[in-house]
Amino acid sequence: MTKTTAVDIVARHVAQTSYSDLSPLTITRARQVVLDYIGTMLGGYQTPLGQLAADYAAQLQPGSQATIVGDKRRSTVEGAAFANATMGKFLGMDDSHRTAGHVASQLVPVALALGESLRLTGEQVITALAVGYDVMHMIDQEVDKWQRERGLDHKGQQGTLAAAITAAKAMNLPQDKIGHALALAMDMACGTEQYVWDAGACDTKDLLAGYGARNGINAAIMAEFGFRGPPGALDGPYGYFHAFGPGYDPACLDALKHEALANTGFKPHAGCRHVHSCVDATQALMSAHEVDLDAVQSIEVDTYLEAITPEFRVNYTPQTVGQAGFSLPVTTSIVLTRGSWFREDIDAYDDPSALRLRKLVKVGLDEAIQAEHPIKNGCEVRIHTQDGAQLTGRVEYAKGEPENMLSDAEFEAKFRYLVGEMLPEEQIGAILAGCARLEQLDDVGALTHLTVPQKALAQVS
């Protein structure tokens, strides 16, 4: 009798999942995550790295299968997914799942590129995204702590496996080939977080999302073609959980419950998610008090352990914008002086007024928040003034977490901020309307067509 492997169980879950299995909240989150990531892609396209990624896909992976978002050129599905994932990650404003991290940057480009190429409906795309989130959550919760201690990156690692699942589901592969897609992706998983130490001197923070999306599609295409992956790719002696984690626990498969996408969060600010509760707490303090910055004597920032370690998260002397985006002292000082934490704010990290305040920041651990992390990811900011007053701002959940979700108006405002003047109002309105009824779309390719500036509007139906 053939042994049932973890790959078999995952493949069965994916193959048997249908749109009718998904909760209303999962469908709502799918609409939001597609709109949100289209926005981050359009914002990222307007940066030098976004242009480089688009040029790479158009010139070195030319094709007619899928749209390079924001660009009049097209590429293969692998090329478009790579470029779109890379450009969408650059601004650091993609979604952030409390156990699986940044998932949209790998899965949404896969679903949209294959959705356009295969003329998939909105329901099919939502289902493909949901199972990809399921698998990434299941794997990541088992290996995250082990991998972080060793500097492995979840986007290129678990993201590759989850992208293969989303691709296989989008391609409507049978159960055995879904298993082979997952197993083949195991040997394509890659990526470290060395970029956090070399931030500003490399592009890999964003390229890893592109690798995950591209390699996931490649694994699914290879499985469809007939290539096989190892049956023990997850639970075998040298399988993923042993090679890239602490070992295999069969109980991890209990997490395959169609709930992961429903529990994702979103980023209203730029930079690392671990500084966002500090942004929110600082903004809450400023809303509650009139702050005379010249009278500030000291600033205390207390939050959870993962937000203050390793030491690059408490970096008082960042040398690049990339390093500044991870630093809590920089975050606090910039929000106090500028009020917000977008890319242009991080660019001003060495502004003299902020630099003075940065030196006054002391970072510490909040035991109460730590006790409930990762469910809670809060922060408390306290300002002590020269006249002895203490001003406090505190949040229990960063804005955008499931318990502190963005409103529809806030999602739209973020989208419009990211797009800027790149698209005419007619196209912006059409994308917003299309995402708002994503499950009703007959062909999701109409959405990606709308991201190209000045393109004649297709009827989104």
How would a crystallographer describe the biggest sheet? Answer: 4 strands, mixed
According to CATH, the homologous superfamily of the largest domain is 2-methylcitrate dehydratase PrpD
What is the topology, as strand order, of the major beta sheet? 4-3-5-6
Distance between the termini: 49 Å
Binned, the helix content reads 40-55%
Mean pLDDT: 95
Structural class, from helix and strand content?
alpha+beta
Radius of gyration: 22 Å
Q: What string gives the helices and strands in order?
A: HHHEEHHHHHHHHHEHHHHEHEEHHH
Q: How many extended strands?
A: 6
Please report the first level of CATH classification, the CATH class of the largest domain. Answer: Mainly Alpha
- Judging from the principal axes of the Cα atoms, what is the shape? globular
SS element count, helices: 20
Low-confidence stretches: 455-461
Structure description:
This protein is of the alpha+beta class and about 450 residues long. It has 2 domains: about 5-265, 2-methylcitrate dehydratase PrpD (Orthogonal Bundle); about 275-400, 2-Layer Sandwich (60s Ribosomal Protein L30, Chain: A). The protein contains 20 helices and 6 strands. It has a 4-stranded mixed sheet with strand order 4-3-5-6. The protein has a two-stranded antiparallel sheet with strand order 1-2. β1 (about 60-65) and β2 form a beta hairpin. Mean pLDDT is about 95; it is low at about 455-460.
